[in-house]
Write a structure and sequence with these properties.
heterodimer; A: about 375 residues; mainly alpha; about 75% helix; B: about 500 residues; alpha/beta; globular
Chain lengths: ~375, ~500
């Protein structure tokens, strides 16, 4: 104590600059020591958590695998579930075993299909994990909500569909993304009907996820998807167009041409692509009408669409003009489109009339070097 | 005027003014580090929470995933080009092409590619119009298994020129620019592309990832199988330095959306914006930073609501110099690159028209990346002169020095904390101990060397007019132990 007092007195005797520097040095020393201890503890905690997780998995894995792969009667099944519960209760609080088990089951579920996957879903339910997950969904922070919805959809806990649907337009993007995906997994058509009411913009990433999931529902959701085209939410129009292209829904074509002059470039691009995939040669004139005022991206997509539609070569003069005079990127797309509608010989004959750099474009297309 | 009427002469005033400037500068540097540490922590937490449950594999099955051209410039890479291309061809992404640009190599780089991948010249008209040295030929494989590969052979013009040629040839809306000798994580494209697809209302124009050091790591089949610290002291110093740069600096600037540099070793760019702003500037040695600054400037000037994203996952592993001489040349070049970029875009300096970039990131680069080593160097000289003149209070100096030293250790400790908190790649205790040790030694050995290299870079730029790159001798990556030849 005496030493500290002496030190303090000598500190007070120093002039201000010494006091400032000494004070900062002491603070930095304390912070660096604290950080050192924190890092050591963090490393120890992570290593311990990894070890405990693997110990937990070592204990439960044989039981779970036997439940999945062996023919158990109901009595044996219940007995093993009790065993599992005992293991989990024992280490539940100390090692976050709920989360570990959930992660483990999810990982296993992703790898398996058919009866095995169904058995994992049953294990999940029999261990009474859905109510715990629901609690996490209701009370947890946003990232806990994401995790909870992800687990509910992975294990197909359909009786919680209503709870999941409520989060489909949540202000936190990741929560609503997961809820939209989860709701479609759990509710199928019942959930796609709710999508049209969404207010928040949907990212391409999310559209990509939903397309793959919606595609599994096939024609069942066609009317819902077509209704998205009338939404005020422009990202839903994008999603609907992507779905129509992905599913090859020709019935949608009558709704699509109105989008080729939409203010949003992505929608124009998709509508042109959809016309190319789903439309007929009658729509070429509409595409050509817009061509000159379009961005280069849309022009190239338009040329690709013309290539798809122009079986009788009614736009071939236009395409030849583009090959001769447009910049290389557009000219190359035009050459591709022309190639779709004419023979190799006609292409070669046409290339004889071109300048050298344009000839290379034709050769490139004939070679298929793209 | 009465308050200035003291006993101090002009020399004393000069001394006090210089001390005052140095003091204010040092405090500002320290404060900036503290803020960066806070922001990097926030960014790390947000990133981990957001991406913990991301299902990247969805992209693999998707027909909607945008295509990407991977641009890999190669100059005299005969020793490793075949393996490196094989590694690039095995990335996990549904739609991509690999464009290897042979930048007029003097060795057998091109022939190695032709032989290994059964290449033939094809008719090809590049669609881009960026200026670059003439392209001699474009090759494609006769083997459909390598249909993703395109090899461009051109006259030598430097890395930026080769990348411009690659941009002209590329046909995807996004380009990933890499150093051909880097080892990429298989899923790096999925992770780097996600931000482009995820943003709504804002256009992501570029994404960059973390570069880690591959020296002494085990590599098998083009992937890192075991992470180890480099064996040499210089390699270990750089490991700590890279961790600090990426986990603190870049991550924090990513959080603030003020990132000005995406490493040339790994970055994905929106090709349309790159082409519109003129591609790489071939007359600089710091082409990676210059491009990002120009893209940001272009987007800002054209009213594009944009973002540059940073991915904290370790996605790319590179070999760093393990000789002081090569390291000196590299740091000298980095300094010259920074100066060139700063001077080219001086219009941004404290220009409110450019928002955060003009008012925050760009001045930060000027004051703390460009000026810092120069000020440190002259501060040291200034100290030595005054010490000789007997004007230094050594007791105070030792205390001040201790404070700065402790600050440096605190920041390094914090970096190790961030590494363990996020990706925890250096799991072995001995690696952690060694990194700790580096934190203690670095301020006396490595840091002065880096400062000297940077000062010399300034000298070379302003007084020698130096422009060239300088060569890097590579020692190659470690194979797993089983594959090593038995020792006699």
């Amino acid at each position: 104590m005496q030493m500290i007092t002496n030190w303090w007195d000598s500190f007070l005797e120093k002039d201000l600059r010494f006091q400032v520097v000494i004070a900062f040095s002491v603070i930095l020393l304390i912070v660096s020591i604290a950080l050192f201890i924190i890092v050591l503890r963090l490393r120890a905690r992570k290593s311990r958590a990894d070890r405990k997780a693997s110990e937990l998995i070592d204990q439960i894995e044989p039981i779970i695998l036997s439940l999945i792969y062996e023919e158990e009667d109901e009595v044996d099944w219940d007995h093993e579930i009790v065993n599992l519960r005992n293991i989990l209760t024992f280490s539940m609080y100390e090692f976050h075993s709920y989360a570990r088990l959930s992660d483990y089951l999810i990982q296993l579920h992703k790898q398996l299909e058919g009866d095995s996957a169904k058995k994992i879903e049953r294990i999940y339910r029999d261990l009474e994990m859905p109510p715990m997950t629901l609690k996490l969904l209701k009370d947890g922070k946003w990232h806990h909500k994401v995790k909870a919805i992800s687990a509910l959809s992975e294990f197909r806990i359909k009786n919680y569909l209503f709870e999941v649907i409520q989060y489909m337009d949540h202000p936190q993007r990741l929560v609503r993304d997961e809820a939209q995906f989860g709701a479609i997994v759990l509710g199928g058509k019942r959930a796609t009907g709710s999508i049209v009411k969404l207010n928040y913009e949907m990212s391409k990433w999310q559209q990509l996820r939903l397309i793959e999931q919606c595609a599994q529902l096939d024609d069942e959701i066609k009317s819902d998807v077509l209704s998205w085209m009338n939404s005020q939410n422009e990202s839903l129009i994008e999603l609907a167009l992507r779905m129509c292209i992905r599913m090859g829904w020709y019935e949608a074509i009558e709704n699509i041409p109105r989008f080729i002059s939409h203010k949003r470039e992505e929608i124009r691009l998709l509508s042109v692509e959809a016309i190319g995939e789903l439309g007929s040669a009658d729509l070429i004139s509409e595409l050509l009408h817009r061509f000159e005022v379009e961005s280069r991206k849309v022009q190239i997509r338009t040329l690709m669409a013309i290539g798809e539609l122009d079986a009788d070569g009614r736009a071939s003069d236009f395409l030849r003009g583009q090959i001769m005079y447009a910049d290389y990127e557009v000219a190359l797309a035009a050459a591709h489109a022309l190639y779709e509608t004419t023979s190799d010989d006609e292409m070669r004959e046409f290339s004889a009339r071109l300048e050298e750099d344009r000839v290379v474009l034709i050769e490139q297309v004939l070679y298929g070097a793209v | 005027m009465e308050q200035f009427d003291t006993d101090l002469n002009v020399g004393d005033w000069v001394f006090l003014t210089l001390v005052g400037i140095l003091f204010v500068y040092t405090v500002t540097v320290m404060l900036s580090y503290i803020f960066l540490a806070i922001f990097s922590n926030l960014q790390a937490r947000i990133y981990i929470q957001r991406n913990k449950y991301a299902k990247y594999d969805l992209l693999l099955k998707s027909s909607v995933a945008p295509s990407v051209s991977v641009l890999a410039p190669a100059f005299n890479e005969e020793a490793s080009i075949v393996e490196n291309i094989r590694s690039l061809l095995s990335l996990k992404y549904p739609k991509y092409q690999v464009v290897v640009v042979n930048d007029g190599s003097k060795d057998s780089t091109l022939q190695q590619c032709i032989d290994a991948y059964n290449l033939e010249p094809i008719p090809f008209q590049p669609t881009g119009n960026l200026e670059c040295k003439p392209i001699r030929n474009v090759y494609r494989s006769k083997n459909p298994a390598f249909k993703k590969l395109l090899v461009v052979d051109k006259e030598n013009g430097g890395k930026a020129d080769a990348l411009n040629a690659g941009l002209n040839v590329a046909q995807s809306p996004y380009v990933m620019n890499i150093d051909v000798d880097c080892i990429l994580e298989r899923d790096c494209l999925q992770k780097l592309m996600k931000p482009f697809l995820e943003e709504t209302g804002t256009r992501v124009i570029a994404t960059g990832g973390v570069i880690r050091i591959a020296n002494n790591c085990e590599v098998e089949g083009g992937s890192i199988t075991k992470v180890r610290l480099p064996q040499t002291l210089i390699g270990k110093f750089q490991t700590l330095e890279y961790l600090r740069a990426f986990l603190l600096g870049r991550m924090a600037w990513g959080y603030l959306d003020g990132l000005l540099l995406i490493s040339g070793a790994l970055g994905v760019f929106d090709r349309e914006i790159v082409m519109k702003c003129g591609g790489y500037y071939a007359a600089t040695v710091g082409e990676d930073m210059e491009l990002v600054v120009r893209m940001r400037r272009y987007a800002r000037e054209h009213g594009i609501k944009y973002k540059v994203e940073f991915i904290p996952d370790p996605l790319c592993w590179t070999e760093v110099p393990e000789s002081w001489n090569v390291l000196y040349r590299q740091r000298n070049r980095w300094t010259r690159g920074t100066i060139e970029t700063v001077l080219l875009h001086k219009k941004l300096f404290f220009n409110p028209r450019y928002g955060k970039i003009g008012l925050l990131s760009f001045p930060y680069w000027v004051f703390f990346e460009w000026f810092a080593p120069v000020i440190e160097f002259f501060g040291t000289i200034f100290f030595i002169i005054y010490a000789f003149l007997g004007l230094v209070n050594f007791q105070f100096f030792i205390m001040l020095f201790s404070m700065v030293y402790l600050f440096s250790i605190t920041i390094s400790m914090y970096t190790l904390f961030m590494e363990d908190l996020t990706f925890f790649r250096y799991r072995q205790k001995k690696d952690f101990r060694r990194l700790m040790m580096m934190a203690f030694i670095e301020p006396f050995v490595f840091h002065p060397f880096v400062v000297w290299s940077a000062v010399k870079g300034n000298w070379d730029y302003f007084f020698e007019g130096k422009k060239q790159w300088g060569a890097m001798k590579r020692v190659g990556f470690q194979k797993p132990k089983e594959e090593e030849a038995p020792k006699s």
